[in-house]
Amino acid sequence: MRAKPRLLIAGCGDVVSRALPWLLQRFRVYVLCRRADQADHLRAMGVVPILADLDQPATLSRLAGLRATLIHSVPPATHGETDLRTRKLLSAIQKPAPRNSKSTILAQPPRPAVYISTTGVYGNADGHWLDESRGARPDSARARRRADAEQQLRSWARRTGRPLAILRAPGIYAEGRLPTARIERGEPVIRREEDSWSNHIHADDLAHAVCLALFRGRPLRTYNVVDDAPSRMGDWFDEVADASKLPRPARITREEAQLQLSPAILSYLGESRRLRNLRLKQELRVHLRWPTTSSFFASLF
């Protein structure tokens, strides 16, 4: 029986965990994890855990010489304007394997890589429609860190011949990961005539796109992994409130928001864009299970 190809996952959070059943049928899966209890959980799922921490380069020696397929979804640290975690991951992978290495991850021909980025790299577009032809114009430090990660990965892919697909994801939601806490706190939203446009994707649809990008993604290609129906941010919170049987948030002016909302929330409200997903559908051939947020909420009832 032919051995399965190897896959390394850096960042096995909620989204990538949803893809594991599909991935385990096709790959021998290795996952970076920081703690022994995480390793035990992953091992029980059929995954080979690798105890390593991207904030501790000395723990990454087992990745030397890696030529396995890669899924990278580790977020940057919360400070600075560059992504040091991606830099350390790529540095570890690019180091030659030591002679007589007993590592279970063997060198292989160049294999695909997928990076889960964010649509925040586009910056503010004043509500205009965008596709992937628009270059990155990040407005915030968090988005500049993501844009830096993308650039690092592109340079690495060009040097190594790796086919790289970058998936830009917007607000990710699913049952159990909705902004109900904010609604329960009574935080207001912007009145509709001044509100920003936002985009969403269900976690299952993003996980499906990650899987297909490994096989169908074009080299050095970027994909907007968004659903078919951008919405005003306040309308999104109204949908969540209605589905959760909570009172809808109060509406305030943008000027009032400057006094009542946190800088982090204001940063998101300052970005307004509507994103097209033609590449997602035509090249990756993704069929969205939840093409709109309203279709998801309707399914709950």
From TrEMBL:
Domain NAD-dependent epimerase/dehydratase intervals: 107-225
Top-level taxon: Bacteria
Gene3D superfamilies assigned: NAD(P)-binding Rossmann-like Domain
InterPro entries in the record: Epimerase_deHydtase, NAD(P)-bd_dom_sf, NAD(P)-dependent_oxidoreduct
Residue ranges of the region described as Disordered: 129-148
A Pfam family assignment: Epimerase
Classification via PANTHER family: NAD(P)-BINDING DOMAIN-CONTAINING PROTEIN-RELATED, PROTEIN YEEZ
Protein name per UniProt: NAD-dependent dehydratase
